Each structure stands twice: as structure tokens, then as C-alpha cells.
């Protein structure tokens, strides 16, 4: 028996449901079914056949049907465009003159927009003329239950059942609580009991297809094939075959939402019984686009229903039907109130057309209308999109976007769809998670979309900047860019002012303001001759500047960062003094604090100043104060041995290792740094590249196994003349002491153990 975790995604629910209730599963190897495939692998008795998206699924289906015995259950997990190849075969098998199939078949269909021009359910509706039952799933619980229900009904009625879901709405990274403990056999037994009871009460030998689907919904713990939520006196009722998650937003309006849980057979009686008598307008949310006909299947079904049934005192003339067709996922759009309420106003207009197509193209005006009243940051982002030719219409409708070097294919644009239109938040207390609610904050700092959209235009900051010429490189270097921190390089004051003028024009274009008080101008190896201006603000002159907490000075040496590290290490030592002084804290915890707090502060930027013990001596002195305090020793103690006893590496060794790692790793990066390392400048004095290469050649050797050994450690041990070190060498004692672990095992004796 497979243990199913309490929290699953919708795609995992499909895999677990298919594995529980089927003997064989044919699954298309696409990204949308990757989690389903992983879930199916846990079921050892189920035959799982993976199908390449480019292969013929019809041939795979026929081969597996022939290999399976009679009364076996087969599930097919495929995308909507893939199942169209099965339609001619299903017409022959399950049409009016069809002979049926020896195996029961359930289709689990993913409606997706990845790799396509739109999100369309037309391929699924094409099977509706065959009388095949069609159900939909919108949550992990429904995906798990409906997948099992489809297999049960298919086996009982010997007719295929389609269970489809909107893969653009389901999030593969969102885990929800789901009751997946009950085995599939329990649902099957409930369904058979309900069916037997219905046949006995009605005195019939068989039930209609509509009654059969009502019973499976009942066995599936679904109340009915149709569910209604909203005002009992609603004048506008929204209808869809899938859950749009908008019913919670309709509580304060005179509108209602009708969800059709079972589309085929069409539940006419149930719809008439639950729809309000006051309804004047029915809005059909049809997930279709680019139809050959004017209206879709759902519109034709409602038109036929209203022609034969009168609703209370209303006449047929008083009820108007509006079909809204969209190529973009409705649940993603309409679950967000800033987009829902403008949409309600749009369809509530008296002169609204009976067909709104395509709704995705109308989202541009609704998008701006929803954002402009309260979210000025989002309006700025919207303007940036327009300037980059990445307008909201293309982004929402799913059209591939191209601009300069930016190439956003349709599948990648789904990230922006979710980030812009489906922001949710929830509260977690312990293991309990609240229901998600809308996150109405636009695109402020901390929003998911903010860094993504920021990268769109910040990458063009250096566009047109001349930069500096470096011998050995084919292109000039304009500067350094890390998030919103930038370093601009120029060969003269005049060139720098030209570059600043270009930055000013760029900032004005994107309606940004640069804080000149945080900027600084530094002339390397020479005095600054003139003032520099950025957005009509004077740039302060400085001899040194801090970029990403790294100190750079006009001499271009490393003593500024070393001095800063010494000061920061001293502040950290004084801040942690009371903690390191406490006798009731185990020594091992104090060592952890030194290695995780003090050492990173003292060694920051060690990639540039490592491989020199004299340079880091002042920083090491500050770290040694903390080590003496922990070890409770004086200034005369041999610090090499004390550090070895406590398991703390020296600043010299850590910075040297960091510089050696940078020397080997930087040439592999996709930046201009590999060019600088491979083509070093020629100078009489040692540079970072030549100094690193000479130091590595001297102290780094490889043994017979190809492993790198740092001989500087052996050199330090050889030159150590302290008596305690010689004493440990003679007695062949190891490096780090074991008494610190004994303190953790025997906390009552930790003080005595430390004295020993």
C-alpha cells in the first residue's frame, strides 16, 4: 500500500488517483505530468507507459489495449491537443454502432497553454457529441477524487470518462491538505450501494447517464453535479464548467456563480432547480477561442435549455445570455478582485454584446483600470512594459514577446501571468494553513513580480556607455552591476560626464530618480579636476567608496577593506563579549559563534587580499582576543596550538583558500572576468593574477592520486617552535581536542572538564 502525504499538489493527486484505481496508465512525458509520473512510480502493480510528446499516442493506445486482458482499467494522462488523435477511434468504438472496448478507459486531460497560442478546451468538448461523461477538477482534492471516480464510472458503464483540469491554474509548487487515506475500493463500494438502492427504489433495471453521474458525485462526497453560490436574488449569474474561485468575491454583490461539476450529460434539471428566479442575465465563461462557429458548446446547451423551460415568472425574452470566450485562464484572472470588479461592470452594461471574444484582449483596459487608483508603482511598471513593447495585451493573451535581446516564449510568460494576476497569501500556524486570500498590494517591494520586472529594464542601464578599454579584451567594460547598485567606469572626467548624461536620459525615460547623496565620484591614481552632475545634482567627491560592503580607494589597494574588516571584527567581538565570557555556555557553542560570525566578518573580501600573512595580522589579532576569552588563556599562550585545539582556522589560511578558489572559479564564469584573468596587465609589481599563480605554484601540490594538498599547513607546523607544539608532536596527539564534546555529554562536569 502506497503512503500518500497529507499535503499534495494537484498533479500529484492525479498520479496517486490513477495509480490507485487503474491497472495500466499511459502518460505523456511533459512537464505538466512530471509530478504525476513520480507519484505513479510508487505503485508497483500498475503498468506505467511513458509516451514521448512527438510520438503517436493512438498507436501506443492500441498496443496497450491489445496487451491488457478484459475487464482491466486503463487511464490516459495527456494534454488536450494530444487526445484529438483518439477521437476517430472513439467514434468507431463508442458511437451509435460501436462495439465498445474490452477495457475501461478514463482520460485525464491537461488544458494548458505551454507551447500553444491559447488555453483552449475545444479539444475536450469535441468528445461531448459521443455522450462521453466529462468532469473537471480544480484543486488537489478534486484531482485525486475525480481521477478515481472517472475510472470507477468507466468500468461500471463501459464507456470512456474524461476528467480535465486547467494546468495554468494548478500550481506544481503549492501543496494543499487532501484526504487521500481512503482507498479507491471504498468509493467503488459506496457507488455500487447507491446504485443498487436507486434501482430498487425506482423499480428499474438501468439508470440514465445523468442519474449515474449524480450517484458517483454522491459517492465522491460531492453534493451534486451542479453547485450554486451567491445571492438568492441574483440578477447576474456566472456559469462555468470549472471552478473560477470567484464565488468568494461575489458575497457582497447581487451576483451568483453556478459551477457545472458534470458537463456531460448536461444536468438540465439540476441547473433549473438551483438557478435564482430573479436572474436576468447569464454570463457563460467559456474557456475556448478561435472557434469555427460563433458560439461554443456551453452557449448552445444553455440556449437549448432556455428554449424548453420557463423560469418562474420570467419570460424567455427577459433572460439574456452573454458568452465570454478567452484564450487565457479564467481562474488566474478572475480570482483577483482588482480584475474581477471591472469585469463585472463590463458584462453588466445594458448594451453588452452576446459574445465577448477574446476577453484576453480586453484585459488591457481592465488591467490599467484596476491598478491606477491605488497602485502607482504598478502603473509605472505598466508604462515600462509599453516602452519595451511588452504590453499587457501580449503578456496576458500569451503572444510570444520579442524585444532587443529579451526573448520571452509563451511558456515562460506563464510566470508573469501568475505573478501579475494571481497573487495569494495565507497564514500558517503550526501545521494549519489558512485559506488563501488575495494579496492586494500591486508590485511593491517584496512582491514576486518586482525583481523579475526590474531585471527587464535595469539590464539596459549601461546601453550606449563607452566604458574603459582593457588590453587583451575585445570589448570595453562599462561598469559593474549588481541589482540596483552600479559602478560606472570612464577613462576621463569628460567621458564620465557623458556617461552620466546618458544615465540621466535613461532615468528620465523610465521615470526614475537617482539618489545623488548615496553616489560618489572617485578618480583612481589622480586628482579630480571638475564637478560631475547627475540629474541636476552634484556628485560628491571621495577618496574611497563602499560597493557591496567592499572598500575601494583611489590608490586601488586592499588596505581599506582590511582596515574595515578589523574595525568590524572589533565591534563584533565587543558585542559578543558577554556571551563568550559566560561559563554556563558550552565551549563548542562559543566556537560555533566565532566560526560563523567573527571569522566571516574578518575574512570578508579575502579573495582580493589573501595569500599574505602580514596583511591579515591585524585582523587575526582581533579574532585571537575572542579565542583567548573562550580558551581562558593569556597573551603568552601559543595561539597556533590554541586554534588547533579549538578547531578554528587562521584568517591567513581562510583568506588564502578563498583567493585560490576565486582564481580557479572566476575563469569559468560568463562575464568579462575570465578575459581579465587570461590576459593580465604587464607590470613590474605583482598583480592579483600573477601573485595568485606564483603563490599557488609554490604551496599547492598534487599527490599521486591527483588530490591537491596545501603544503603551507605543513610549513606552518614545521616552523612552529612553541614547546606545547613540540610536546604534542612527540606524543603524536591530534589537532582538535575531544573534551568539548565531553562537555555536551556531561553538562554537570563541563567546568571541571575544561580545567583538565
UniProtKB/TrEMBL annotation:
Signal peptide extent: none
InterPro entries cross-referenced by the UniProt entry: RT_dom, THDP-binding, Transketo_C/PFOR_II
Boundaries of every Reverse transcriptase domain copy: 435-551
SUPFAM superfamilies in UniProt: Thiamin diphosphate-binding fold (THDP-binding), TK C-terminal domain-like
A Pfam family per the record: RVT_1
PANTHER family for the chain: REVERSE TRANSCRIPTASE DOMAIN-CONTAINING PROTEIN (PTHR47027), REVERSE TRANSCRIPTASE-LIKE PROTEIN WITH RNA-DIRECTED DNA POLYMERASE DOMAIN (PTHR47027:SF20)
Protein name, entry field: Reverse transcriptase domain-containing protein
